[in-house]
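Quick one, tokens below. Sequence please?
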């Protein structure tokens, strides 16, 4: 304490504050290195055994995981485009169930998809697209829970004359993206991991 008496209380307090400030700067410099820029992430590869919005169910009643086929990437339109979904074969009229909870964002008839739905999950991060439906069971703006009956399997749109099936897509969404946007994710590995419990 002799040094305090020689320098005076004001100067001593200033030196203590400078020492504390210096020590905190050294700790920040050595223990908290500057963050490195993150590598770009392909949103299609960020999905694991669960969809971005939680667990899924197989969206066609009575279909087991072992019956699914991975048609992702198959050629469509005479090789003009790549299939960004899976087709789940089932007899005409088989109930289609909501794969996850959400809100019916868009219901319409398209030339390619026939009778279709886009359902956005509650967190807004995922859209599930159901196409070639025979009948509708819900309306735009309606909330659905996982497993709710929303439609029936059909062969409308470009599937006309072919085997009845559900065309099922998953899209990961960024804030502000609309129902037709997003990045497609292969549903097959997500549904196949469910196992034959459903």
């Amino acid at each position: 304490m002799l040094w305090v008496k020689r320098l005076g209380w004001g100067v001593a307090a200033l030196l203590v504050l400078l020492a504390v400030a210096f020590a905190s700067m050294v700790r920040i410099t050595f223990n908290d290195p500057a963050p490195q820029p993150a590598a770009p992430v392909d949103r299609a590869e960020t999905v694991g055994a669960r969809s971005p919005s939680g667990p899924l169910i197989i969206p066609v009643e009575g279909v087991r995981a072992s019956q699914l086929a991975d048609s992702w990437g198959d050629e469509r339109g005479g090789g003009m485009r790549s299939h960004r979904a899976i087709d789940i074969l089932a007899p005409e009229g088989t109930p289609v169930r909501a794969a996850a909870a959400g809100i019916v964002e868009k219901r319409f008839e398209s030339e390619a998809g026939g009778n279709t739905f886009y359902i956005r999950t509650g967190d807004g991060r995922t859209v599930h697209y159901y196409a070639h439906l025979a009948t509708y069971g819900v309306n735009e703006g309606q909330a659905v829970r996982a497993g709710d009956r929303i439609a029936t399997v059909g062969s409308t749109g470009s599937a006309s004359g072919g085997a009845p099936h559900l065309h099922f897509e998953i899209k990961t969404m960024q804030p502000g993206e609309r129902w037709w946007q997003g990045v497609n994710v292969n549903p097959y590995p997500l549904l196949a991991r469910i196992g034959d419990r459903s």
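The two ends are 77 Å apart (CA to CA). Residues 65-191 form a domain with the Glucose Permease (Domain IIA) fold (CATH 2.70.70.10).
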